[in-house]
Write a structure and sequence with these properties.
The strands form four sheets. A five-stranded parallel beta sheet has the order 7-6-8-11-12, with helices on both faces. It has eleven helices and twelve strands. The chain folds into two domains: 2-102, no CATH class; 120-371, Rossmann fold, CATH 3.40.50.1110. With 376 residues, the chain is an alpha/beta fold.
């Protein structure tokens, strides 16, 4: 019996070692770029170094495990009860972790803190929206910034001046970048375009939204505007991974609405730590995102408004980002403006664009809207 245990443990250790070594070799940078999407939170050189470190760690661990396989087999044969105890304890720990995590009030990945400004409220169709009719206060780099949200849930200069939907308006959809995270109203992309064009801006953007959620909000809000002049959407390759998250309400092929999919909390935690996506999932996300961008343009044009996609890019665009941008944005056929900015134009201790970046994007948007003949 002990001989059998020794052989099984040794083979298992050798097999695990082989898997680690094969994965370390096979997961080259090309494979990683295909399955781990560009990140909004980390510069590319950071996660390339992280990926290389993980590959080296896997290879070293595999080599050590292969060398130690005979010892592991002998140790398992000497103390089979200890091996069984460790195995049972590991299974029980996993079993106990799941109900413990379910007792916690975990928010969606895009809305982790319920008290984060601007405050959000749950919405059955969109997942969440901004809490209306209030002013949120944040401190960014030692500077106070106010987020004034009118009764319709749009960011405005101040709550005493809500958006007048009976007047001509430029509609801005998207997420925190378009909303203007960490900058004052006058420094936001919509606020600057409003000042440059003389046409009031209506900011429909909501923190954490995917492209499909932004479309759904536009679909609901656009009919309330009497004279929409243009609809400006945001689509960044570093935020594309958000569109693949089916744990929130989302759109599927054919613009079919789907509720958020429930899953094991341990599975959600694993996906957060290792954001791997298979080819089929990415291809499906590209197809749906293109469809959403085209549908957004159709909504705008049906109301006589111009449609424009803002594509922000910090630093030079690498091959992985360029390939993804071409598949999603270029092939959508919707007019877009690509704005490359200095990679340092970020908020202190944050990855969001600062006032310099917002100014560059606003100038590019205004110029492109004039070229499109939007009637500014």
């Amino acid at each position: 019996m002990r001989a059998v245990i020794r052989i099984v443990a040794e083979v298992a250790a050798a097999a695990a070692a082989a898997v680690l070594i094969v994965c370390a070799v096979a997961a080259n940078q090309s494979w990683l770029d295909r399955h781990f999407l560009p990140s909004f939170l980390f510069p590319r050189d950071w996660y390339v170094r992280l990926e290389l470190s993980v590959r080296l760690a896997m290879a070293i661990t595999g080599a050590c495990l292969m060398r130690l396989a005979p010892r592991i087999g002998r140790a398992a044969a000497r103390a089979p009860s200890g091996l069984a105890s460790v195995s049972v304890a590991a299974v029980l720990a996993l079993g106990a972790a799941e109900p413990a995590l379910r007792r916690m009030n975990l928010q969606p990945t895009e809305w982790l803190r319920p008290d984060e400004e601007p405050l959000r409220v749950a919405d059955a169709r969109l997942g969440w929206t901004l809490a209306p009719g209030r002013v949120g206060h944040v401190n960014v780099g030692g500077r106070g910034v106010d987020y004034a949200i009118d009764a319709s849930g749009y960011r405005v200069r101040d709550v005493q001046h809500p958006v007048d939907r009976s007047q001509p308006a430029l509609l801005f959809t998207g997420e925190s970048v378009m909303f203007g995270e960490g900058v004052t109203w006058d420094e936001t992309v919509p606020g600057r375009v409003e000042a440059q064009s003389g046409t009031p801006a209506a900011v429909l953007a909501v923190h954490g939204f995917g492209t499909d959620q932004a479309y759904l909000r536009l679909e609901a809000e656009l009919p309330r505007f009497r004279h929409p002049v243009a609809v400006v959407s945001l689509c960044a390759t570093t935020l594309f991974g958000r569109n693949l998250d089916d744990r929130r309400p989302h759109l599927d092929r054919g613009l079919a609405w789907r509720p958020g999919r429930s899953e094991w909390r341990l599975q959600s935690l694993a996906r957060l730590i290792i954001p791997y996506h298979g080819d089929a999932v990415i291809d499906g996300g590209v197809e749906v995102t293109r469809e959403v961008l085209r549908a957004t343009a159709r909504l705008a044009r049906a109301r006589g408004a111009a449609a424009l996609i803002l594509v922000p890019q910090f630093g030079p665009e690498d091959e992985a980002e360029r390939a993804l941008r071409r598949r999603v944005v270029d092939e959508s056929g919707v007019p877009f403006v690509f704005v490359e900015m200095d990679s340092s134009w970020r908020l202190p201790w944050d990855r969001h664009p600062d006032a310099r970046a917002a100014r560059a994007m606003a100038e590019a948007v205004t110029k492109r809207l004039w070229a499109l003949g939007s009637g500014l």
